Amino acid sequence: xxxxxxxxxxxxxxxxxxxxxxxxxxxxxxxxxxxxxxxxxxxxxxxxxxxxxxxxxxxxxxxxxxxxxxxxxxxxxxxxxxxxxxxxxxxxxxxxxxxxxxxxxxxxxxxxxxxxxxxxxxxxxxxxxxxxxxxxxxxxxxxxxxxxxxxxxxxxxxxxxxxxxxxxxxxxxxxxxxxxxxxxxxxxxxxxxxxxxxxxxxxxxxxxxxxxxxxxxxxxxxxxxxxxxxxxxxxxxxxxxxxxxxxxxxxxxxxxxxxxxxxxxxxxxxxxxxxxxxxxxxxxxxxxxxxxxxxxxxxxxxxxxxxxxxxxxxxxxxxxxxxxxxxxxxxxxxxxxxxxxxxxxxxxxxxxxxxxxxxxxxxxxxxxxxxxxxxxxxxxxxxxxxxxxxxxxxxxxxxxxxxxxxxxxxxxxxxxxxxxxxxxxxxxxxx
Amino acid sequence: xxxxxxxxxxxxxxxxxxxxxxxxxxxxxxxxxxxxxxxxxxxxxxxxxxxxxxxxxxxxxxxxxxxxxxxxxxxxxxxxxxxxxxxxxxxxxxxxxxxxxxxxxxxxxxxxxxxxxxxxxxxxxxxxxxxxxxxxxxxxxxxxxxxxxxxxxxxxxxxxxxxxxxxxxxxxxxxxxxxxxxxxxxxxxxxxxxxxxxxxxxxxxxxxxxxxxxxxxxxxxxxxxxxxxxxxxxxxxxxxxxxxxxxxxxxxxxxxxxxxxxxxxxxxxxxxxxxxxxxxxxxxxxxxxxxxxxxxxxxxxxxxxxxxxxxxxxxxxxxxxxxxxxxxxxxxxxxx
Amino acid sequence: xxxxxxxxxxxxxxxxxxxxxxxxxxxxxxxxxxxxxxxxxxxxxxxxxxxxxxxxxxxxxxxxxxxxxxxxxxxxxxxxxxxxxxxxxxxxxxxxxxxxxxxxxxxxxxxxxxxxxxxxxxxxxxxxxxxxxxxxxxxxxxxxxxxxxxxxxxxxxxxxxxxxxxxxxxxxxxxxxxxxxxxxxxxxxxxxxxxxxxxxxxxxxxxxxxxxxxxxxxxxxxxxxxxxxxxxxxxxxxxxxxxxxxxxxxxxxxxxxxxxxxxxxxxxxxxxxxx
Lengths: 431, 336, 275
What we know:
Chain B is mostly helical.
């Protein structure tokens, strides 16, 4: 960390502090919390793009998959669908589906020519219909149970913090499948593969009600920190807040946000520490050697595809972890909000603006871009008010005012293009 | 009779919708493949170029309708199309001048251009929303149907109706004309050949006196034209919504890649392959099956392979299968 | 392709074919170059005292190459002698620190390669010298891209010179054999009706029989009044057909004479022709 970088971080910190002093500490801490998560996301994408040049445009999918973890881990189990047998049958169906695919892959390796095509078709088509025969009735049973509150298999009722690593593991599993397929091909097709899988994961989460209620959303997921109302009801807390001269309602929201911020900071610091260690280890040096000259690395006996697969899985796991953290922070899962612009391309802006290949850069980019993302909208409103202040009331004026919300995307694009053009290595360059 | 009914049902629910959707995808994929062939990167802003072009067409359509200009049974949008293309071409040429040209001069790595196109995507997305908003817009006017289901039933005495919407017919006819014109241009004209030459071997094209900036400009104009036409046809057929166009990026990329990136023929084949599999896998085959199969074999359920929400999954699965067996796509993608 | 010096070229090792297409050009785009100045007298092509290189270090040192009208000049020399660089310097693909290039009574030192093509230079690169997905005929048409007159006669002349190309004119150039591809490449360069044809190792990678045939064709081209400047690895065979031979060593002229005289020179034979 040289003085310039410290100054950059201090600048972002100042932005958040100013927000707290001029607007409210509540929004400032809100920005800080999502900034911390954004930094983690950016770290994940930076591992893939920065260390290995892997182009992941399905970040949103991994985030969504990670978001599934708090539901599956922390929500109370819906015992009725398990005792009724529906859920078991459903799991059985899924296992059967996996078995069919495994068989198909095995056949694909063993057989050749015409036999292979026929065998694959039979296994896949037959398997598909058998899978549906087992799976569909089970889904119906599960989804029929109290659709207004449940209609899903529920969770395990475990502490929600456990869901964070689970979110990472879920994303890592998906990344393993994608990486195995897309990186193993003669030429690499990772971008389109991730773009596709991202959409598919979101489609599954929106439509499979048995899993996490689909677009009906899962609300009130347990949190790792106390609830505001409980704090407000605690006389000790009220007294403590009064000591600062703050009313209990404001104090409770701020304390909760601070607790979240503490948890997220611990995770972020741990990740930075781990990635810096990894980057400076023999493994990291090898990754850089591969990136700078793949042919030479290959000639020296390095298994490039395997290393790429490794780093792709690691990066995706970090994205999944961040996804689980987002859902925990919101304490709800709303699959409809997973927009690729917001969760894939915005993260890319963070990484590029921060500095590809530099962990501190990714973190800085995460904070800065998230701050802009939040602030540009009110700024756009003010700008539009200014522009339209002299205008007569009418369609144009109201259209311009309504359009202020879209300034966000415009600004993000502009920031990305300006940084790419004038500071292509980002704010904190790699070396 | 049952067989005829089955054929009509098949035409009505699978062949016609898939053909018009396929034509729209093919036009979109052609634009992507042209940019890939000549500028050497996949343009993430293509979906938003389509959205912008369609928004322009819609605005001009509204202006024409306000002035009382109509095209009889055809949608007014058809008359607005040239204006929309011109405005979109102006936008992409301006973008090229302000953004892409610098990187071209730097001989930037193609993947950097991909990231640049992400930035352009954000901006175009914002601009389109700024201009026309995020709401769903229908802008088709003129005759609704070329063949009306009720009339068809009355005329043929079949139980199944055949509806052929005029927007679908228009899509197919326009696509055929545009594709024919594009192929004629690329294979027969001096400019078209110079584009292929540039895509084949940049340095040799420069040595032959081909002006790269001209090739690039023509490419952008054609891509803008294809995007606007594809977007307008899609919007006429379904409806216009900025975000949907952004999401079309996946099936369009899938079409272009399945066909073999850089190959125009491949883009067309890919578009139809993706469209037919999407519709085929998500159509409830019960109706057709009950006509064809004996009663004892008739399916109880809808005989739908996948819910329509998974149509993206279908395009993606097709893509992976093709790539596993033919890594360069169906039509060995190499050059324009 | 590391981006140590140019961050815009840093692809971080990405080779994702679903979003990027490799194999872009290396040449700079044509800039508005200077103009040609009349410089009457001297040989048809006079590239004199050329000094320059790509980076800070010079590759060419006071190198001079001249060709008279309708003559064949051959540049030979050991690997790394700067033969191809000298050729590129003549063609304007290398910035010169000193020296000048004159063609047909005009000083063209300030012109870009594209402008030199218009002035009557034809250049056949050593590799990647055809448009592989285009047909033979289209390749020739692209060679004539700068011409606005009817080039059908030139095309017939090329087909007369290389009859095999006429048979294969509807075939994609990328599908042809190595020797046939070289013929397409030469034919493409001839389509501009150049006054000077420059060939960079035209026989690289072709069989001896094809090589002899190519040399025969090159002699035929020279007989029509086109000057030839070529770089050759097969020094002995090339010098046999050369009116003028240049032996380059470390970017400087070592021996200059007629082809026959160089072949007869025991010193040249011993050092460069392997006895």
